[in-house]
Amino acid sequence: MLSTLIIALREGLEACLIVGILVAYLVRSERVAHLKALWSGVAIAIAASLGLGAVLSITSSELSDRSEKIFAGTSSFIAVGLVTWMVFWMQRTARSLRSDLHGKLDNAVANGPFAIGLVAFFAVVREGLETSLFIYSNFKTEDAIIQSTLGLVLGFAISITLGVLLYKRTVKLNLSKFFTITGVALIVVAAGVLSYGIHEFQELGWLPGADFFIWDVTHWIAADSVFGAVLGGVIGFDTTTSWTQFIVWGCYLVAVLIPYLGNSAQKSAPVEKVKAAA
């Protein structure tokens, strides 16, 4: 539940802030007549993201056991790669995001409603598709489907509420700290998804060390227990974790967290987002 809540909260608020930037610019430049085209693009992006999630779930359920492991393992690696790239991308472009979106919107207005819809679509769908893939992969690491779904719904509800409140200047939020903290949380969750992908490929015999465990605590923590599911979804904990999983998990965290936190310490708050949301 906690991991899906973190994913939905972080990614949902990013999408809300992007939409807020676009809407605020059209309103302040007295071009509200183009809002319909903008919201159409946002709606299509959301539909495409939900569609990807449905395709992933349906495809996975119809595969054989071996094919499902290949599919789940591969999608886990892709999800980790995308999330890692997006975390650093947002960190790098946060300051210029507002001006970049304004420039794209100015060009789109000159080309008509369809172009405006495309700007909104591509701005949101990037977040949506990444989120769908990451959530699907994270769901595979947990057996508590109901709790995970609840965390997902709560995360999106909170992110949308925060987005609206920020847009209306009802609340203030230190977005620099928020995105740094949630970025670290996403990286930790991604490490867990990576560990799950390693496990799937080990079961296929594609990676070594499937039965060479660093620990086996199945006698104390049931793999299908709520506690085990929470640990598995958040940090990639497995009651029978192999050395290969543990080493890859640790190397990923070190390799990603050190430069991420180093960059965060060197950069000031993403004030562009604060101004855009206000």
UniProtKB/TrEMBL annotation:
GO CC field: high-affinity iron permease complex
Subcellular location, principal: membrane
Record bears the keyword Transmembrane: yes
A Pfam family: FTR1
Membrane topology term: Multi-pass membrane protein
Membership in a protein family: Belongs to the oxidase-dependent Fe transporter (OFeT) (TC 9.A.10.1) family.
Protein location: Membrane
InterPro entries, alphabetized: FTR1/Fip1/EfeU
Gene Ontology molecular functions: ferrous iron transmembrane transporter activity
Name the record gives this protein: Unannotated protein
TM region(s), chain numbering: 6-26, 38-58, 70-88, 108-125, 145-166, 178-198, 218-237, 246-262
Keywords: Membrane, Transmembrane, Transmembrane helix
